[in-house]
Write a structure and sequence with these properties.
Number of helices: 15
Oligomer: single chain
Distance between the termini: 22 Å
Order of helices and strands: EHEHEEHEHHHEHHEHHHEEHHEHHEE
Shape: flat
Strand order of the largest sheet: 2-4-1-5-6-7
């Protein structure tokens, strides 16, 4: 299962620097637009302290974190929806991802050109959103035309689509994002999802700040402006210093804690970017623990035990009998599966069980 988060932003806001740090895939981070043409893809491990602690508990041979894909999408510019720059390519790359991390420049530096000539996060977000909304408006208008034609033949789904698309076109035409549009009922929602609108994708903002304001974010007026905008949208803001993260990523893991401490950080800012992307995608982690391997697995929130079994292997789902479930903290507290069982902390769950983030599961199956 590949869940992906696209990294978007104007040119020169620190996107490629951030992406390189995330994936250690060295994309060109140059001081000019369009250095990243094809979207680079980085498979990024999701930091999980529970996996670390459980693998120490059982002294395992192998430790495997779960991961998500980050896609570095080249800098969008004004007019992208009309094909300016490499607009059509970039917009199609955004369409293919499940969620969006929108990197916004919140630092002053006369050595780094700003594509609009000034640092203004709210204006930068508006520039990109305008291009995405214009593209969505085009998509919705075409869908409306199709619905009108097909509803003449008495197609019930298309009749419902006409009313919804009319409201949607009006909504987008006012410059509003598809995320803030309310579809009425299942049929309308299905048509909305089917369109894969760019501004309907779950989105969070990454405020790229300079190292000087990292310790005192409240004094950074650009971060304050971005937070205000995000609050109105109901979106999260993750502040990081991409230049500092690049230095951290270059260090050997053993040298990182000391460097972090000297920078006044408890963990790399990237951890929060990764975790926010993971949460935004509606994902959770369950764990399997053993001497050979301790492993974190990803499923959608709301997944049942057989669906979780299927994340490991389709045979596990097909032949699912039961799941033996221990809460990860209980396993740490009692020290072993046997002791958890004695203490009544091991539950036998069937097909209806909904997996929790942090469940340690052993599946019984028969194929």
């Amino acid at each position: 299962m590949g869940f992906s988060c696209g990294v978007v932003g104007l040119p020169n806001v620190g996107k490629s620097t951030l992406f390189n740090s995330l994936s250690n895939a060295k994309a060109e981070a140059q001081n000019f637009p369009f250095c990243t043409i094809e979207p680079n893809v980085g498979i990024v491990a999701v930091p999980d302290d529970r996996l670390e602690r459980l693998s120490v508990l059982v002294t395992t041979d192998s430790k495997v974190p779960t991961s998500i894909r980050f896609v570095d999408i080249a800098g969008l510019v004004r007019g992208a929806s009309k094909g300016e720059g490499l607009g059509n390519q970039f917009l199609s790359h955004i369409r293919e991802v499940d969620a969006v991390a929108h990197v916004v420049r919140c630092f002053e530096d006369e050595n780094v050109t700003h594509v609009e000539g000034k640092v203004d996060p709210v204006s930068d977000v508006a520039t990109i959103n305008t291009e995405l909304v214009l593209k969505d408006l085009d998509t919705a208008t075409k869908r409306l035309d199709r619905a009108r034609k097909q509803s003449k033949g008495g197609d019930a789904k298309e009749k419902a689509a006409v009313g919804m698309c009319e409201r949607l076109v009006e909504h987008l035409d006012q410059g509003k994002l598809a995320r803030t549009f309310e579809a009425v009922g299942e049929a309308e929602l299905a048509v909305l999802v089917e369109m894969q609108l760019l501004t309907h994708k779950p989105t969070f903002y990454v405020a790229n700040v300079d190292e000087g304001t990292l310790a005192s974010l409240d004094s950074n007026k650009h971060v304050a402006a971005l937070r205000k905008l995000a609050a109105e949208e109901g979106a999260k803001v993750v502040p990081i210093c991409a230049a500092l993260e690049a230095q951290i990523a270059e260090l050997e893991p053993a040298d990182r804690p000391e460097f972090l401490e000297s920078a006044g950080l408890s963990e790399p800012g990237l951890n929060q970017v990764i975790q926010t992307g993971y949460d935004l995608l509606g994902l959770l982690t369950f764990l399997t623990v053993g001497k050979k391997e301790c492993r974190a697995w990803t499923v959608r929130k709301g997944a049942t035990a057989p669906e979780a079994a299927g994340a490991i292997h389709t045979d596990f789902q097909r032949g699912f009998i039961k799941a033996e479930v221990i809460w990860w903290e209980d396993l740490l507290t009692y020290g072993s599966e046997a002791k958890c069982k004695e203490a009544g902390k091991l539950a036998i769950e069937g097909k209806e069980y909904v997996v929790r983030d942090g469940d340690v599961i052993h599946f019984r199956f028969n194929v």
